[in-house]
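Predict the 3D structure for this chain.
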Amino acid sequence: MLRFIVNTLVYFAAAAIGLFVADMVLDEQSFSITYPLGFLLAAIIFALIQAILTPLFTSLADKYASMLAGATSLISALVALVITATISDDLTVNGFWTWFAAALIIWLASLVATLILKVTVVKKVVREVRD
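Done. Predicted structure below.
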């Protein structure tokens, strides 16, 4: 149970960091998030959708197209971004290349954030809880 809670928090933090980095890097006319409540809502929606889609896409890629297995996280980031922007009025993405760039930035920032969080924070928290 502890592992599930920690992983959920890591997914949320990574999604929030990814969205924030995309908002800072991309032009405000093509990618924008309403702060602070819209940002939190978008991060929650994005994290939940990506947490559901990534394992689904990974299993589909493993079953039907193993060469695409590495791209499943990027694809799920794009799909999660599309669904989040559709559900939430607080996230706006305009233009084909902005969609692609935003998904790539969010995926990369989330990947780095997840690795850093799991290596540093998560191990420390789990160790403290066990002691």
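The beta strands are 31-33, 91-93.
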